[in-house]
Amino acid sequence: MKVSVTxxxxxxxxxxxxxxxxxxxxxxxxxxxxxxxxxxxxxxxELAAGERVSPKLEKALRAVxxxxxxxRECDVNLALLRELHLGPELPAQRGLQRWFEQRRExxxxxxxxxxxxxxxxxxxxxxxxxxxxxxxxPPQLPxxxxxxxxxxxxxxxxxxxxxxxSLHAARKLAKQLRYMAELEHPGAKSGEAELARTVEAALRRxxxxxxxxxxxxxxxxxxxxxxxxxxxxxxxxxxNLTGAKLQLALRERAAVDEELARCWRLLRRPPSSVSRAxxxxxxxx
Length: 285
Fold this sequence. Notes:
Blueprint: H1 7-24, H2 28-47, H3 55-83, H4 91-116, H5 118-136, H6 145-156, H7 164-181, H8 190-225, H9 232-267, H10 271-276
Helix pairs in contact: 1-2, 1-5, 2-3, 2-7, 3-4, 3-5, 6-7, 6-8, 6-9, 7-8, 8-9
């Protein structure tokens, strides 16, 4: 398995393009594109142990990231409310949706000011400089990002427990390692490439399942606090959906743990065995 030497530069370019688009249009999809591109860049930096970037880049990126987080939170909750079908729409549901829309407008204005001010301009300048630096001297990455992601999951995966803290830790771990596994070079040998695809797909499924549970749980908490608490029917519907998403997430987590354990055993075989064998897909894949 191997990683392309140009992948770090591509990661910077993705952030540059998404930042440029975000400065023109702060619609939901462009906020999301920016945040995912930053996460991919963070995966490169995490793999390139000891690779330092400008403190000014870090500061500008944090400023824009915080603003996009507020907007993204509203976008996610508005999308969930549009999915919520309770028969005749409850007045509380419409009211909560309007509240998120107003909150989104305020957060969007603050984001646009940040992008038009020193932070946005500084971030664009520092990203360009980072890209030029990495073009001249690419950071040293592991030969196999997918294998490294698998190793980290094996070592750091939180115990399968129902406590929110354990589930949050698993969600964050899956998100971080999924972007890391995506860096695998497509030119790897067939067995190694199949192993890499299996690892990336499993982590993606786990991130999606735990993310869905987390989003519904967060919406339920916000609805409970909204104007002293939303009416009982709305809160009951949100609790039921959160519970259903939790059960799906726990089943997916068990399936992914089993699948990644098989991948880990396969990875620890002699290299020739890995090249010949391909991991079996989990039934839930």
